[in-house]
Amino acid sequence: MKPKIVRSIEGLHRETAKWRDDGLTTAIVPTMGALHQGHLTLVAEGLEHADRVIVSIFVNAKQFGANEDLSRYPRDEAGDVAKLAEAGAHLIFAPPEKEMYGRNFATTVVLKGPAKANLEDKFRPHFFDGVATIVAKLFIQSGADFAIFGQKDYQQLQVVTHMARDLDMPIEVIGVPTVRASDGMALSSRNQYLTKTERKQATAIYKSLTQAAEKIRNGTDPQKAMRAASRSLTTLGFKVDYVTARNAETLAVPVSHSHEPLRLLAAAWLGKTRLIDNIEV
């Protein structure tokens, strides 16, 4: 069945009010469209937790920097709707920008903690304030019981999780493991920017991270292993923003020789495309 599309907050409230009156639970999957199998896996996870699943499609200009790819960001609403119908989503919330950021909009969620980890925030200074603001609005607008996010954007997942907890939002944030192609490449809407040659090269990020994780499990100092991974990617033609080991919850640099849970994170440019990935140790 084709999911219903609503484009206003009022319309969203009408639909979700009916569900609440019927005693149904709701999950929301926030997206910017250009959906791939990774997004559909999030929908499937939502269906495991809730009676109804909302997918938001909104390209949020406030999380793009001055030199980033807002105008190039892929958009295919018709294709997205067809995929979500197949996946079993119940409702698509696809508002225009003026609906989300009305006249004289002047409020922003300002973050610390995982949002100031010297990772994505170093290279995209306004990114997480923009993400947190729109996600907070979606949580409030939908009244959802669950929010489903992918672990591929790991720092984002930690930021949103901490925000919901710190602001006492009555919603459970659920992280879903990264969906990968058969060669290990993390699925991403931005992968379509890659040429065929670059697409083959891009698998080196995941391979470098898995090799580093193996070294760490075998006793190599985490930061030493990550420096080697960074050098390897640079040699292969990547422009590395960061390749690092962090505490899996706080994203702080781990204390030497500690036994804290680790997450390995990488961001690097291949040609004109910026790719990110992460794995647990």
CATH architecture of the largest domain: 3-Layer(aba) Sandwich
Total domain units: 2
Describe the biggest sheet? 6 strands, parallel
Shape: globular
The CATH superfamily of the largest domain appears as HUPs
Total of helices: 10
What is the residue-averaged pLDDT? 95
Q: Tell me the helix content.
A: 25-40%
**Distance N to C terminus:** 41 Å
CATH topology of the largest domain: Rossmann fold
- Uncertain parts: none
Polypeptide structure, described:
The structure is a single chain. The protein is α/β, with parallel strands linked by helices and 281 residues long. The chain has two domains: 4-176, HUPs (Rossmann fold), CATH 3.40.50.620; 189-280, 2-Layer Sandwich (Pantoate--beta-alanine Ligase, Chain: A,domain 2), CATH 3.30.1300.10. Helix content is 39%, strand content 19%. The protein contains ten helices and nine strands. The protein has helices at 9-21, 37-49, 77-87, 97-100, 120-123, 127-142, 154-166, 196-201, 203-217, 222-235; strands spanning 4-6, 26-31, 52-57, 91-93, 146-150, 172-176, 239-247, 262-270, 273-280. It has a six-stranded parallel β-sheet with strand order 1-4-3-2-5-6, sandwiched between helices. The protein has a three-stranded antiparallel β-sheet with strand order 7-8-9, with helices on one face. Strand 8 (262-270) and strand 9 (273-280) form a beta hairpin. Helix 6 (127-142) crosses helix 7 (154-166) and helix 9 packs antiparallel against helix 10 (222-235). The radius of gyration is 19 Å and the shape is globular. 38% of the residues are buried.
